[in-house]
Amino acid sequence: MLAIEKHLGKDCRTSFASVFAxxxxxxxxxxxASSHRDGTDLLHLCSVTGLGDYCSKKGAHLALFxxxxxxxxxxxxxxxxxSALITHANxxxxxxxxxxSIVQYTPAALARYVHNGFKHPSQLKKSNLKAWKAAMADKAxxxxxxxxxxxxVDQVKGISA
Length: 161
Prior knowledge:
With 161 residues, the chain is of the alpha+beta class. It is 31% helix and 21% strand. Strand 3 and strand 4 form a beta hairpin. Helix 3 packs across helix 4. The longest helix is centred in the last third of the chain and has 20 residues.
C-alpha cells in the first residue's frame, strides 16, 4: 500500500488500520458464502473477520477445501488465508442467529499497476516494450511461484503437532 499511497495520496486508503487495499462488508443478517475462489485477488493473504451472535461450534465454520479443513471462526475472530488459491465457503448458522463479516483483500490488478510503474499493461506496452515483455514473462510463472511460497497442509500439521 505504501507505493500506491505515495502515488495517489493518503486519501486512497479504505482504512488507515489495514494493510489491505479493499474491504467488503457482508451485512447479513445471515451472511453466508458459497464455495468459491477469489481469482482476482492478490495471491497473498486475505482477512475474514466473523461478527454476529452465533454458536461457532454448531455453524459458521470456514471450509478450506483443498486443505481439507473445517475451521471454527468464533464471532470477533479473524483468519488469514490465500483466498485466490484455496476454494472456500462458510457453513450456515442456526435459526435465530445472526452473522456478518468483514473481508479485506488486495486486487491483483492493483499490484500489477504498481509493479508496472502505475501503468495499465496496455500503457506499459506503448511506453516501454522491453518492460512490458519482462512483465508478461514474469506473469506466466507468477502463479506457480506464489503457490510454492505457502506451506503444505502436511507442513502446517507438523507445526501444530
